Amino acid sequence: MQQSIHPRWILLLTVVVASGFIILMIIKVSNVLSESSFTPKLEDKTRVTILTTDEIIDQSWGSLAYVGQLKIEEQFPVEVTLYSEINTEPLQEETLEKVLETGVEVVIGHGREFSEIFTRYAPLYSNVHFVTIHGDAVHENQSVYSFNQGEIERKAGIAAALISETSKIGLIDAVDAREEQPQFEEALYQVNPDISLFYKVVNSWDDNSKAVEYMEELVNEGVDVVYSRGNGFNRAVIEYGRKHQIYMIGYLEDQSYMASEWMLTSVMNDVSQMYVAIMKDYFSEEGILPGVKLLTEEDGVYQLAPFGPMFTEEDLRFIYE
Fold first, then answer.
1. What is this structure's pTM?
2. Is residue 72 located within the same domain as residue 181?
3. Under 8 Å between Cβ of 83 and 65
4. If you compute the radius of gyration of the chain from its CA atoms, what whole number of angstroms results?
5. Where in this chain does the record put each ABC transporter substrate-binding protein PnrA-like domain (predicted)?
6. 190 exposed, middle or buried (CB, 10 Å; 0-12, 13-18, 19+)?
7. Which residues constitute the domain of residue 64?
8. d(C-alpha 200, C-alpha 144), whole Å
9. How far apart are CA 98 and CA 251, in angstroms?
10. I want to staple 135 with a disulfide (CB 3.0 to 4.6 A). Which of 1, 101, 112, 295 is the partner?
């Protein structure tokens, strides 16, 4: 009797164990399938909009905004939209209103020309931070990132004064910044109080014809050193200076490759690094602070290119001391 019960007990135990194993496998397979079909939700990217009045073409002011976009997309969890040629007040209003309806968190104006409209809209959108490259900031959610390259412009001014034989020096500017950035002019008078500065404003970053027209006027005045503080038009100005044997100071990049025998130095600045500084602050513990933030050489926004071969060792010691 016991012998007949024993096999049944073994059979029952086997069925129970097998059933449990099958159930366990079903559960595991189910979990694996659900895990494979589940994609963890990534942290939402911060929405950033950049506005520029300029075109996105090589050597343009607007191209620096595009490079800034590429840099912050590479280094930060952001989704960036860039709008170019937003160059009239109605177009600024239309574009900004459209952008603000998309849930954007940071709006960056590529130039001081966006300060006024940002000042109007900032109180209406307290959850958005408005930032301009240069300009003014009024509200708590409005900031300006700028830099004062005065120290290196002072050295460039000393260099210009040392080289000039006519004591006539020209400065061609994209925008009127004579009062805001006086260091170059101050350095000229520091070296030679009898120097005359001829100041021209193109009111554009890339108007070649206007810049060259001013360059021709300066040459006719007897100017023998010109600092061209532009962007797109610098190439045309430097080419004109090379042909007429005028000493030049470049801008934005080391432009000695265009006319090495006539280029004193270049005041280099990397505007695209300002975008990195903005987003670095945004993702910091403090966030972007209201008001004006002046960036320095440590932020990688400016430096002076090497001086040209026309300077003696004595000249260079004088410039730096």
1. 0.72
2. no
3. no
4. 31
5. 46-290
6. middle
7. 46-147+272-299
8. 26
9. 35
10. 112
